[in-house]
Specification:
single chain, mainly alpha, three-stranded antiparallel β-sheet, 7 helices, about 65% helix, Cation_antiport_E, Na+/H+ antiporter subunit E
């Protein structure tokens, strides 16, 4: 089947369902240009509409849910980390310069949703000091090139930050299945913390 035939046979997606995707594309446009002025965002909206409706792309499956409270929390966290990482990279460039040790860290995500994997990867790449260099779609694994990572503890810190970013996105726009997995993970972590607290209170070691 030719590309033109594929475009003709492509089902029309209602504009209402496209709005979350368009908003995300406009946000990425502003972040990439580091310009959130009205004119640039309007131009980005035009580009996003053209990309989503004229060029043939695989369908993006949305979750059907959106939590504005967690979305605002994600945005606040994102901008905080953006500013913090910018100053951290500046300090590292002055203090260590070419002696900074870097590493590629692989992180397996919880979700297999293309939207969540893409959103997580873009959010991490926009923060100075980390860049997604490869994505294994079959296993939902991101490989990031990270600054100032020289020990296993540093790598574990990167993995935790990546999964924390994903968890905020799952709570904001993730599927109900991904949200249930996240809730079960949180419940298990609380149970393990309670066991450790109880062990410390009684002065007994953790049973083997």
């Amino acid at each position: 089947m030719t590309r033109r035939a594929q475009m003709r046979n492509r089902p029309r997606v209602p504009l209402l369902k496209e709005i979350p995707l368009l908003i995300w594309l406009v946000f990425l446009w502003g972040a990439l240009w580091q310009d959130f002025s009205a004119g640039n965002l309007i131009f980005g909206a035009v580009i996003a509409f053209v990309v989503a409706n004229i060029f043939y792309l695989p369908p993006v499956e949305l979750s059907g849910r959106f939590n504005p409270i967690y979305a605002l929390g994600f945005l606040f966290r994102f901008f905080y980390k953006l500013v913090h990482a910018s100053f951290e990279v500046l300090w590292l460039s002055i203090a260590k310069g070419p002696h900074i040790k870097n590493a590629v860290v692989g992180v397996k995500l919880r979700s297999h949703s293309d939207l969540l994997v893409t959103a997580t990867g873009h959010a991490l790449s926009l923060i100075p000091g980390s860049l997604v260099v490869e994505v294994d779609r079959s296993t939902s694994t991101l490989y990031l090139h990270c600054l100032n990572v020289s020990t296993p503890e540093n790598a574990d810190k990167v993995r935790k930050d990546v999964r924390d970013t994903e968890s905020w996105l799952i709570r904001s726009i993730g599927t109900r299945e991904d949200l249930e997995v996240l809730k079960a993970e949180d419940a298990l972590a609380r149970e393990e913390a309670a066991v450790l607290d109880g062990t410390a209170a009684t002065g007994k070691g953790v049973p083997s």
